[in-house]
Amino acid sequence: MNKKTINVKDILINNGIIIVLLLMVLYVGLTKDNFFSGSNFSNISINVACRFIIALGVSGCLITKGTDLSAGRAVGLAACLAGTMLQKADYSGRFELTKNWPELNVWLVLLICIAICCVFGLINGIVVAYLSVPAFIGTLGMQLIIYGINLVYTKSVPIGGYRSDYTVIANGKLFGVIPYLFIIAVVLGLIIWFIYNYTRHGKYMYAIGGNEAAAEVAGVNVKKTKIIIYMTAAAMYAIAGFLLGAKSGGVSVNLGNGYELEAIAACTIGGVSVNGGIGRVSGVLIGVLVFELLKTSLQFLGIDPNYQYIAQGIVIVVAIALDIRKYIAKK
Amino acid sequence: MAEYRLEMRGVSKSFPGVKALDGINLKVRPGTVHALMGENGAGKSTLMKCLFGIYHMDEGEVYLDGEKVEIHNPDEALHKGLAMVHQELQPIPERTVAENMYAGRYPTKNFGPFKVVDHKKMFEETEKWLNDVKMPYNPKAKLGTMSIAQMQSVEIAKAVSLQARVVILDEPTSSLTDNEVEALFRIIRDLKSRGVSLIYISHKMAEIREICDEITIMRDGTYVGSWSMDEISDDEIVKQMVGRELTNIYPPKNDTKAGEVLLEVKGLSSIHDRSFQDCSFQLRRGEILGFGGLVGAQRTELMEAVFGMRHIKAGEIYIKGKKMNIKRPQDAIRGGIGMITEDRRGTGILGCLSIADNVSISSLDQYLEYGIKINKGKVENLVKENVAKLSIKTPSSKTRIQSLSGGNQQKVLISRWLANDPDILIMDEPTRGIDVGAKYEIYQIMIELAKQGKGIIMISSEMPELIGMSNRICVMCNGRITGELAGEEATQEKIMSFATQF
To answer: I need a labelling partner for A43 at 20 to 30 A (CA). Which of A57, B211, B234, B260 fits?
Structure first.
């Protein structure tokens, strides 16, 4: 009897933030009319999809005790790159540089975005793995570099007038019900889940996070693994940026600003340990959901958007305090 | 004056699922050194943590000089005159000796309306206390520049400066050289003569015999008994600790003749002048090659270089006659070498990962299907097989390795390499910090591997282990191999004479 109450208490504390959030969702859903509606769910799933993809990328860096502060700007760059290459032929405000280019295949453009972002991911990986620069600093530098490159490239001109075969990727629905974005996010989530759990790369990643020196002795190619992690992350940002651009139908250089912090926060809420070695794809998903549901709920409650930042900040700190508590108790 | 300086009566402590301590008694007389012995996992650390209020004891009482006390945290313990010198020192290396000694209780002076640290007083006081334990170090030296032995004396001086009545030394000599041990014993005797009581936790029988007056033995969280050192023999102590007679401490060696040369190292020199220089040796199939020497003889550094963990300036490594270019551990592993490092926690285990992950990490290529997916069933079988073969005690293969005892962690690391089936296994202090029972099991595994035709290099600082296990012994001193002895001709004296050549 006694033991059981302890368990209930532990469950409540360990999952406190999720439980509080579910209660809040329930409250909002029961008091506001449109919350539990198909359109709202599809709306949320579209919002969650891109954040989830970015968080997936960042999670690998976090698991190896690194981080990637260039995520948000890489998303912005990918969105701008895609936008400049996928404007309508007859659009009046076409981007100067690509004005006379032939019509490019949408998927080819996606590949170009991924390739370009991966170059930055490669540099991040080399800086972290070979030059031993702390990831926090190395990727902070990269954040500025990518933003600078984006400013130079776009000259801060907003880009719009997208082709419909581009925008449909984000706004279309399979059988008119399931958003394509949702499907893409699920597929990417499954791929990353497979990599983390069933491949050598995944095992090496957790080993490096657990104890880098020991992993090296055990024969793990630490440098190569880290580089792959930062490149995979960059590929994720490219896909997310490409999709975000398609979703909004236009883009400016400021897209993606601060997304890396949201992604890091979501990962940590989902149990990815900043001390390395621990983290699951399901956790990342939960973290992102917590964040997006929080935002949506606050909107539905009609709370001043300025206050929403404060609420988000509190959730991050509380979530992480509760999470850290688990590890301290285990000692 | 009470008969006992410190008395712990009937201390019990349970953790979920385990009774860690069950009715432990510990009685320490004033001005004596009291040995606390027991296998790893016997509950010595838990008992000390209860004493210092880090754990809250379920039952039991503590008396200091006959007066009942309740201690809720280490800070209170310190104020009541209990001080502990930890096995793993936790100093602040970038600050001075004095700052480390006075951390948290800096002497202050008034500077206008503010209270500021009185550096002059702090340095003077530190110097005084250091001189008091006859360790005249510079109080302004950075602690990080000192040896472990010196840091330890600083800790002891700190305990003295706090007017400690009871000082607990937890495996104080595990990383000290013989001279440093002598110096430590001098300090201990000095403290004793001032009426300070010491609790001495150690596995080393000779030291216990030399320095301790009384002994308390624990086994599996229970109290076995207390004796005066005069009335108990070494054999009796071991017997009480393990609860069984250890008829033969080392299993019989592999006596088949050593086969072909597996590993040959020629003129290996470190990039650092003060590390190993011009080292050459051979390892043959089926033999255990011991590496002896004093701490600091660069044995670990030499072996880590062979394994690709350190840079070399000159020298060649041949495996089965083939010249190898070993730049990193992966190259060595591909060449058929496995390595159990000295620092198990630092460079051995992957603490927050499962046993299965720890066993399989070096041999993942073997379990792939479709060239990419790891077959978890195969990994599970491998783990099961090893858990049974090496009798690893673990609840399941998903248990995190950090929750196992040292001996079981070591067995997991051995199975990691067995999965890879290397011809050559380098084991650096393979039984350090491992209890008697598990030690014997590890010895058996080593002999078994040698019989299967592997070559094993064992670095050991324990002379009996070196002599008891090795078919051949290389002795190092100051970065050079100074002698080689066949197993049967090796004696402690011969090894020592090679080890102290320079």
So the answer is: A57
Beta strand B480-486 with B472-477 is antiparallel
pLDDT of residue A324: 73
pLDDT band at B159 (very low <50, low <70, confident <90, very high): confident
Decide if A48 contacts A185 (C-beta within 8 A): yes
Q: Do B158 and B293 share a structural domain?
A: no
What digits encode the pLDDT tens for the residues B118-131? Answer: 888 888 888 888 88
Q: For residue A28, what is the enclosing H or E element?
A: helix A16-31
Clarify whether residues B225 and B271 are in a common domain.
Answer: no
Domain interval for residue B411: 346-421
Q: What three-state secondary structure class fits B450?
A: helix
Calpha distance B197→B164 (Å, rounded): 9
CA distance B263 to chain A (A): 19
Q: What dotted CATH number matches A16-325?
A: 1.10.3470
CA atoms within 13 A on the CB side of A286: 18
* pLDDT-above-90 percentage for chain A: 52
Quote the DSSP letter at residue B362: G
Whether A278 contacts chain B with CB within 8 A? yes
Give Cβ neighbours of residue A209 (< 8 Å, ≥ 6 apart): A63, A64, A65, A276, A277, A278, A279, B352
Asked whether the predicted pLDDT for residue B223 surpasses 80, the reply is: yes
* Residue A331 scores a pLDDT above 50: no
A217 touches chain B (CB under 8 A): yes
User: pLDDT tens for residues A3-60?
Assistant: 445 677 777 776 777 787 788 888 888 887 777 777 777 778 888 999 999 999 999 9
pTM of the model: 0.76
ipTM: 0.83
Nearest CA in chain B to A211: B350
Distance CA A102, CA A87 (A): 11
- Mutation target to probe the A interface, by most A beta carbons within 10 A, among B350, B368, B382 is B350
